[in-house]
């Protein structure tokens, strides 16, 4: 299985996870969206040297994955590509010095570690949201927040178009490999032609998909596919908000350390 096929499989796995009949999946999408956005904003609000506070925020995504019966290792594995980007950004200031507990350490490395943790917690929260809600239900929640219909429809169609683009790319890659079995990868002089063909073929398929949606009555309005649990949503949102407030305003680890 090549990288394109693995990417397609990963998207299909997310759709299958979102279609499960679990308590977390049944929660109202607006509740999950609000809780995740609150958590991400709280994580991003920490100072770049607030290592203990950012580490403590990791309790929340770990709890969410246990609650939703999701694989935490799988979410961390999906974070690899984002991690390389964050490492590249954080390496710019690794030579700054900082004193922690009377010991001089490189403040740049601390800020890099904090940046990676912020990115990891935020990524895990978004992965949880997509894996337990689905893109259609997320767009429905966004419309409840009065996001313009055009933006929510574009978001959904972009997500679906990405799958078509990957599928066409996988077919073209397989066809090229069959015609050039002794060449590793794709020759440089064929890149332009293949990219143009990929764009045209994926646009044709995307147009067909949109016409099929229109024939089935799609007008840009999203509806809940199943009954949402209103009481469960409240029981999910309130503890999430409480966790964010407590762990943002109080040094929980320092307080526990002083008590012990």
Can you give me a brief rundown of this structure?
The chain is mainly α and 260 residues long. Helix content is 73%, strand content 3%. α1 packs across α8 (107-133).
Structure in words:
This protein is 73% helix and 3% strand. The chain is mainly α and 260 residues long. It has helices spanning 3-18, 23-26, 29-44, 51-56, 59-68, 72-78, 80-90, 107-133, 135-144, 149-179, 191-215, 230-249, 252-259, and strands spanning 97-100, 103-106. It is globular, with a radius of gyration of 22 Å. It starts with a helix and ends with a helix. It has a two-stranded antiparallel ribbon. Helix 3 runs parallel beside helix 12.
Q: Report the end-to-end length measured between terminal Cα atoms.
A: 52 Å
DSSP strand content: under 5%
Which stretches of 5+ consecutive residues score pLDDT under 50?
A: none
Q: Can you give the helix content as a percent range?
A: over 70%
The helix tally amounts to 13
Secondary-structure class? mainly alpha
Order of helices and strands: HHHHHHHEEHHHHHH
Q: Whole-number radius of gyration?
A: 22 Å
Strand order of the largest sheet: 1-2
Mean pLDDT equals 82
- Shape summary: globular
Number of beta strands = 2
Q: What about the largest sheet?
A: 2 strands, antiparallel
């Amino acid at each position: 299985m090549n990288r394109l096929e693995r990417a397609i499989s990963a998207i299909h796995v997310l759709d299958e996870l979102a279609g499960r009949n679990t308590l977390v999946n049944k929660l109202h999408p607006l509740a999950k969206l609000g809780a995740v956005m609150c958590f991400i904003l709280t994580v991003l609000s920490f100072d770049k040297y607030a290592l203990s506070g950012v580490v403590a925020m990791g309790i929340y995504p770990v709890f969410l994955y246990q609650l939703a019966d999701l694989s935490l290792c799988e979410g961390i594995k999906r974070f690899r590509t984002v991690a390389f980007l964050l490492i590249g950004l954080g390496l710019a200031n690794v030579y700054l010095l900082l004193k922690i507990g009377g010991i001089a350490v490189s403040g740049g490395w601390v800020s890099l570690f904090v940046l990676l943790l912020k990115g990891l917690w935020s990524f895990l929260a978004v992965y949880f949201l997509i894996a337990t809600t689905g893109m259609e239900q997320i767009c429905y929640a966004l419309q409840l927040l009065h996001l313009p219909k055009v933006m929510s429809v574009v978001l959904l169609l972009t997500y679906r178009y990405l799958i078509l683009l990957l599928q066409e790319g996988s077919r073209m890659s397989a066809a090229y490999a069959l015609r050039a079995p002794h060449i590793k990868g794709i020759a440089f002089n064929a890149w332009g032609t293949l990219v143009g063909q990929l764009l045209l073929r994926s646009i044709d398929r995307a147009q067909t998909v949109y016409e099929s949606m229109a024939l089935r009555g799609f007008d840009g309005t999203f509806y809940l596919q199943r009954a949402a649990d209103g009481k469960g949503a409240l029981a999910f949102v309130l503890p999430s908000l409480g966790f964010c407030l407590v762990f943002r305003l109080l040094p929980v680890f320092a307080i526990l350390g002083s008590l012990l």
